[in-house]
Amino acid sequence: MQDSAAWRRPERGPKVGHKKSRNGCRKCKGRRVKCDERRPVCGNCNRLNLDCSWPDRSFVSTRSQSPAAPPITGIPRQPQSQPSLISDDSSGSPSLGHSLPTPTSLFGRPSPPSLQFFSSFDNPPYAELPESRERRLLEHRLMHHYTTNMSHLAAQANKEWGELFKQTVPMLALKNDNLLNAVLALSASSLLRIEPGNMELFNARQSYLIWSVRHQRATLDSLTAETADPVCLTSILLLIFSFAVLRERPLEPYTAPLEWLHMGRGAGAVIGMSANTILTSGDVKGSAVRIVIDSYPDFSEDEAYFDPSMRQGLNGILAQELPGSREVRDDETREAYEKTLSYVGSIQKAIDNREAVYALCRRIQAFPIMIPSRFIALVEEQRPRALVVLAHYFAAVAQVRGVWWLGAAEVGWEGTAEREIRAIGKALPLEWMVHMVWPLEMADLR
């Protein structure tokens, strides 16, 4: 991972932000980003806590009504029925469906975007999966697929970690709907890789996802030592799910995978809540939370992954200064870049040291949990430096094989990491491409 040499691409892709809305708020126009035109506070200003003001003219919505790209190849487009993993309702408050009372975060109280966990879903048709023989057979198939074909979740780790996903998860799922539905949604997502045109699987996946999040939220409202384990495990499975579906998202024009990043922040907070509940109760022995926390690598006390030595060879990304650049380089921003780069470097070091796949998966999965929230805000602003750092993370992911949810390249499918790196390369200004040589090489895109 040495500093990249200069590289020129033959054709420069379109820059992010060129496709604008005519009736956007003043802040979005000033930042030259696309505004969703929600009034009185647009989505961007709501997320970034900015003062949202509007031009003095009558409002006429010009938002694009074109349907979103189909999430799975071969599945028909279904505009206005496909739930977004993370979004806000028109009031700017997160919600989980019309049947729920006061709009709050998953944790039962208002929270910043980093704690919003699948915050809005459309109900029909995915929330309606009627009881039938077909449904029972489908659920049997999904659970069978999980128990027989998804053992790589444990990735041949130590005995405790292996039993956690092979035995503990199915057992706890029998009594906890949040975990049961997370297992079914994740299993359906795995099967859709094999049957990308199976609409029954796709509809079921969306329903189980919605149900899992709703039950998770309800359980968190009264978290106990008895429910802490299934809540923790549900968070892990939903985080795996959020990465697995990255391969299905449209990438033109490129927007960073914020749903997955915010999901990670939320999952980290929930795991922390579960751990505190277990520790307070004193019933730590044999708990799933203890296994999650104590497993290697240690993310609780050992912060070696933030050591400056981990980003050796990557400091050129931090040193890049461009004429006319308006990037604010305050201490918080610099620390966010430094810590994130160090964490990426620690993943690469683990790869170079031939660490077990299980440990590599934990490092990769923990990325949105461990990095500073400031870095996620920089990614959300489409800062070129932040996108380059994100590309280096996906370059590390591209080197890990044999784990289905990481989305390795297959016949007819470009890998998740490769898709993200290619799209970031097209979105970046040409002068930043000097730092994309290594990610492009790791993704076999040069």
Automatic annotation (TrEMBL):
Tell me the superkingdom of the source: Eukaryota
Q: Where would I find the Zn(2)-C6 fungal-type domain in this sequence?
A: 24-54
Q: Which CDD domains match?
A: GAL4
Keyword Nucleus tagged: yes
Q: Where is the composition biased (Low complexity)?
A: 79-106
Region of interest: Disordered? 1-26, 59-107
> What Pfam families does its record include?
Fungal_trans_2, Zn_clus
Keyword line: Nucleus
Composition skew (Basic residues), residue ranges = 15-26
Keyword Ligase listed:
no
Q: Name one GO molecular function term.
A: zinc ion binding
Return the Basic and acidic residues bias intervals. Answer: 1-14
What is this protein called in UniProt?
Zn(2)-C6 fungal-type domain-containing protein
